[in-house]
């Protein structure tokens, strides 16, 4: 049985401002081919946006995913993380590598231990956050326009505008703490969105290409490949062994 047809277990983790909703098309195709797919929404986002508090931290996000893996008795997991969720992937690999089959960083942040998401942000992105902090509730950062994620189709943009939610502020400034080397020996693939490249993940792409044994791939679309090229992205995920 080929790697594309053998039943696999995928856990797809969305990025900042998003929720499980962003994986809809990819999820439908994977499940249609007989695979098991979980798309947990991180605390304070999407349909769980009502749970956002000042105590929502990066560790909250990490526990969100760890608890799904634990209580659903998952093993041999292909763990996929988009954008901000790269830090969550790294933490899960650090804490429970025995449950994982493969890591897939989808145009995602790769942080070194002791770094925060804010440490990797371009100046204009951090300036946007600081402006939002000054004028907001101190708990969250409002989402950027859909075009920021590469969404140019007007109907798709309207749909995104109804789904994007503010992101818990503290998670941007929490440091990632790892006890082991990055990836912790779990087979890893980095998929970069290359048309255009996303400025926030520039350093992460460089790290991914320098990691011994990691596979580096590109998909010729904007940052949100799961909405812009769902079929091609799904085929790439199906090819993961």
Automatic annotation (TrEMBL):
Gene3D superfamilies: alpha/beta hydrolase. Pfam families: Abhydrolase_6. Residues 11-233 form the AB hydrolase-1 domain. It comes from the Bacteria. Coiled coil: none annotated. One of its GO terms (molecular function) is methyl salicylate esterase activity. GO terms for biological process: jasmonic acid metabolic process; salicylic acid metabolic process. This is Putative esterase. It comes from Advenella mimigardefordensis (strain DSM 17166 / LMG 22922 / DPN7).
């Amino acid at each position: 049985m080929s790697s594309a047809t053998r039943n696999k277990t995928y856990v797809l983790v969305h990025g900042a401002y998003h929720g499980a909703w962003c994986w809809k098309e990819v999820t439908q195709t994977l499940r249609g081919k007989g695979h098991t797919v979980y798309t947990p929404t991180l605390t304070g986002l999407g349909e769980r946006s009502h749970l956002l508090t000042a105590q929502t931290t990066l560790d909250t996000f990490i526990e969100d995913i760890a608890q799904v893996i634990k209580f659903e008795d998952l093993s041999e997991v292909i763990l996929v993380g988009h954008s901000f969720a790269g830090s969550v992937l790294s933490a899960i690999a650090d804490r429970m590598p025995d449950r994982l089959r493969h890591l897939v960083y989808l145009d995602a942040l790769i942080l070194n231990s002791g770094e925060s998401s804010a440490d990797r942000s371009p100046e204009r992105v951090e300036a946007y956050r600081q402006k939002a902090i000054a004028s907001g509730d101190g708990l969250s950062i409002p989402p950027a326009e859909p075009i920021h994620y590469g969404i140019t189709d007007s109907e798709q943009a309207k749909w995104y505008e109804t789904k994007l939610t503010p992101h818990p502020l503290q998670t941007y400034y929490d440091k990632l703490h790892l006890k082991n080397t990055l990836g912790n020996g779990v087979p890893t693939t980095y998929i970069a969105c290359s048309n255009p490249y996303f400025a926030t993940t520039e350093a992460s792409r460089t790290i991914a290409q320098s990691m011994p044994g990691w596979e580096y791939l590109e998909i010729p679309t904007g940052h949100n490949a799961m909405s812009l090229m769902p079929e091609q992205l799904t085929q790439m995920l199906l090819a993961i062994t």
